[in-house]
Amino acid sequence: MKRDLLTIRDLSAEEIHRLIRRAQEMKDERHSGKLHPTLSGRILGLIFVKPSTRTRVSFETAMYRLGGRCVFMTAHDLQISRQEPMADTARVLSRYLDGLVIRTFAHEDVEELAHYATIPVINGLTDRFHPCQVLSDLLTIQEKRGSLENLCVAWIGDGNNVAHSWINAAARLGFTLYLACPREYLPEKEILEWAKNEGRGAIHVVHDPKAAVASADVLYTDVWASMGQEAEAEERKKIFHSFQINEELLAAAPAHAMVLHCLPAHRGEEITDGVIEGPQSVVFDQAENRMFLQMALLEWLM
Ligand code: CP
Ligand code: NVA
Predict the structure, then answer these.
(1) What is the pLDDT of residues 110-158, one digit of tens each?
(2) Residue 3 belongs to some domain of the structure
(3) Residue from 130, 164, 236, 261 carrying the catalytic annotation
(4) Residue 152 catalytic?
(5) Among the options 70, 132, 181, 262, which is catalytic?
(6) Which domain holds residue 113?
(7) Same domain, 244 and 108
(8) How do residues 58-98 score in pLDDT, each as one tens digit?
(9) What is the CATH number for 116?
(10) Would you say the CB of residue 52 lies under 6 angstroms from ligand 1?
(11) 143, part of any domain
């Protein structure tokens, strides 16, 4: 049966560890010049309703490095922009393609696409989740830290799609996650409830960033206004101003802590230039790892 990746909940802990191991193996082998043409002759479709630098290019290059090809589509190019149902789009594209990545607004659209598609569907970001980001971040953390054992991650900022994927990951793998968010911008209740019922991981929602980072191995932030929330950006700046990863907050974290940001970053808002360019920041290694994790993911699903 085909498998999809709509959220990290679709994966077992063992599957996550296996993906990370395979991604690291392919990354290590790249430097020895070894090729992995495991998807030769296969075609991946990409539907992007929102803009992207990393997700699009890392999926396309991942597919090419595996010997496959890609068809990139914006919503504007497709009849979904003229109300053709997702269900019909899914069934038609399944006849041409071997896998499909979609980035869009409503998570339900991706669920509908996956339900009707007979090929694997991968969520490349919705308003609610960004699973590929967090899976590749786990690769980065394991690579830098040596393991994911006894991990403590501090999320600073908006309780958004990336934060939701961190909650799913913490509950699945069983690590400690602090989320420091303004009271008006907490993660969704349903997602926190699901995590609680999973019974693994220790997830704490707090409002003081310093309390969140005190024992953190990883400090993580993301933009205060996500794609689609541009009209709220000015209002959010006022509410989020104390939820910034800056030099003072970093000094309140253990000396070994590393700083991650999914990018794109707004320097001077959620993170200072000094921190993102500083020695504890790993954001470009993090961006690079998107490609290797997704190579492992594509190889497995397709
Ligand atoms: N982090 C991330 O998903 O970046 P893009 O929006 O550029 O794809
Ligand atoms: N939360 C951000 C992530 C961008 C990769 C957004 O949805 O715009």
Answers:
(1) 999 999 999 999 999 999 999 999 999 999 999 999 999 999 999 999 9
(2) no
(3) 130
(4) no
(5) 262
(6) 8-130+290-301
(7) no
(8) 999 999 999 999 999 999 999 999 999 999 999 999 999 99
(9) 3.40.50.1370
(10) yes
(11) yes
